[in-house]
Amino acid sequence: MSASLSMPQTDQSGLSSAEVASRVESGQSNKVKTSTSRSVLDIVRANVFTLFNGIILTAMVLVLITGSWRDAVFGFVIIVNTGIGIVTELKAKRTLDRLSILVASDFLVRRDGRDVEVPHDEIVLDDLMWIRSGEQVPADAEIIRTWGLELDESMLTGESRTVRKSEGEQVYSGSTAVSGLALARVNAVGEHSYAATLTAQAKVYKKTVSDLNKGINTILKFMTFLVVPLCVLLVWSQIGTVGGWQTALATGEWRQAVVSAVAGVVGMIPEGLVLLTSLNFAVAAMRLAYKNTLVQELESVETLARVDCLNLDKTGTITDGGIAFSELVMLGDRAETDKRAAMQALYDLANEQSPNGTGQAVLAGLGERGYTAGEVSERIPFSSERKWSAIVRSFDSSRNLTWTMGAPEVLLSALDGDHGDILAQVNEYADDGNRVLLIVRSDSAVPADFGENPRLDPAGVPVALVLCSERVRSDAAETLAWFREQGVRCRVISGDNPVTVGAIARKVRLTGDREPVAMDARDLPADTAELARVLENVDVLGRVLPDQKKAIVEALHLQDHVVAMTGDGVNDSLALKEADLGIAMGNAAPATKAVAQVVLVDSKFSHLPDVVARGRQVMANMERVAGLFLVKTVYSALISLGVVLTAIPYPYLPRHITYVGALTIGMPAFILALAPNTRRYIPGFLKRVVHFALPGGVATGLSVLCAAWFLPPIMGWDIVNSDADLAALRSTSAIILFVMGVFVLARVAQPLNSWRGVLVVFFAAAGVVGMFIPFVASFFALHLPTGSTLVATLLALVGAAIIFFLCLFVAPHVARLVPRHMQIRDE
């Protein structure tokens, strides 16, 4: 693989083939295990091994052991719930991995006295490596010789300016050569390189904290402590109703006892809420995917609904990383013709064979104004070492005009006279976030050796200042205005000069009509508590180091802020991991995308309001429907307790609760959860849900227990010895559950003067119609009451309605009597 490139001469011969082989054998090559996203194992493990799945699976196995497979239908929710999570996150992983594929490049190294090209992984420790313009540095190295090398280290430091490197200085993997050339000795490879060391700290997987899931898990944990002893007591009480253990084992009645116990246990677990939460997150993730927003973790859809603090990386978020030509400012009192001449000269100065970023911006800006290439008799291309370029226009054999463009301080220092006023003007523009270049015109004769020995003419006259600035995204101001209206505090955190960042923040009206407060991160206190207090009054931070970004997030957490962080460089990965929600741009470093929960595939900051709106829809609607599921938990626990204490057969079967739950909770809840809702998140999710669920749950539980206690003696049913009488009681109890479920659904769906009222009527009618369909009635053990049983059922329903409205009336008064320290709080 010998390189046929013309490289500068050097007396360095590099490593020999034997030395290279020795280093490869000892593991000193540049191989590094890169992770662009969560592994398949992580995704499967996070979705399979949950507390909810454990409880439901145990209950399902118990029912299957009895042979009553119809009563184990509830267990399929595990497969559906787990499958949704795994499939959605795997889809996100595949998309992210495709985004992270980089073009494999070969790098030029010097070995055995000649230059050869080798792949990234075959670079070894102590290799002599050429760093060429346009290449990304593949390994850490020390500069041995340089020919004007300039690096873009923004991926590592966050600073968007280029850095000039001298001999003896260190260069780090992940930076990009913008111009020039250098020969460097590799001194760190693979996992020991700077970029790999930085990203390794961010590789440990951290699950997104979801308020919904946290509330559900709080309920599940409470239920776990309650379920085990209650299940044992239920089995014991049900065995007692069939004549004791000896009779139960001899007759096989133990199976029915287990099924009855599981009916109580399954009712207490809000399995539909867990499933609906996953479905809702999945639907939201798919909707966002259509807008080029990739959700790596489903829970992160919700998190942005709670965000009240958004930390923005300047480059790649507010700006697109490019340079834009702003304007040409003429110096002194010059005519319009002079300005047009200066504009044409500026175009020709920038119109080099390979213009740099600033040159490209000038060509694009002036090209839009109609300027094209003019006549140039001689050209001195831009050099980062000289800091200027020049062109010569020849009008005739006796008259030439030389135009020079470059760094103002370099050009002015070479000119005759005092130009302090121009320097002051340059500094003023620079403080406003501009990159400033100076144009000088000279009428002096051009030296014959000007092309071989470029030099500035001391008699030159400063003509104009060229102002360029970072290209601000067209949607940045509008997006920031939206966040201001929504009460989200935005801060810009950058590695650039705080004055420059502050100027850009003013352009996009980061703080509205108020002047943004900028601060140098080097002046930030080290103490986290003190840092938290300082941050409350700061809008823009410059010169921020990677560790400081993480510390800033930690400090904001001290003030109970929910923090989102955007970023695209390796330097952002630690902060993204520490934040409640990490948001990476599509052009971000692979390590950064790996730790982010949300990736903006097309790197458009304007997609964030969509993510917030979708999260708010999920949160507000799920809070609305969570009460439905928790009502079932409350009445199942209450009924189970009543059954244990009074030693009666369980008043309904698991399949009854499956039927009733599907029509009055599961399916209508799914429709309600997808309805439009832009309500801002209000802390206290669990408390509000519990306060809603208790009256309905207590009313339903008391209604079923009263029917189970009082109907048998009134109707003369022998529910212990007669299967027919027990079936009649269970059908009546199922009808009571259904009617009470419709009452609760109507309460959740309010207001009912719209499609919500139609929804309630539809599912109420569906439940009644289902009882007349033979297959449905047989499968779910539903029996239509007739004769005296119908009268008893109607009386029970009247009593249930009275209990329901009494509970709704009493609940607010009881809540006011509960001591403050005993009230339910979100953890």
Can you give keywords for this protein?
827 residues; alpha/beta; Calcium-transporting ATPase, transmembrane domain; 8-stranded mixed β-sheet; 7-stranded antiparallel β-sheet; disordered N terminus
Explained architecture:
This protein has 28 helices and 21 strands. By secondary structure, the chain is an alpha/beta fold. The protein has 5 domains: 17-33 and 103-200, Calcium-transporting ATPase, cytoplasmic transduction domain A, CATH 2.70.150; 40-99; 211-285 and 615-822, Calcium-transporting ATPase, transmembrane domain (Up-down Bundle), CATH 1.20.1110; 287-319 and 474-612, Rossmann fold (3-Layer(aba) Sandwich); 323-471, Calcium-transporting ATPase, cytoplasmic domain N, CATH 3.40.1110. The strands form 3 sheets. An 8-stranded mixed β-sheet has the order 8-21-20-19-9-16-18-17, sandwiched between helices. Strands 1, 2, 3, 4, 5, 6 and 7 form a 7-stranded antiparallel β-sheet that branches. Strands 10-15-14-13-12-11 form a 6-stranded antiparallel β-sheet, with helices on both faces. The longest helix has 39 residues, at 608-646.
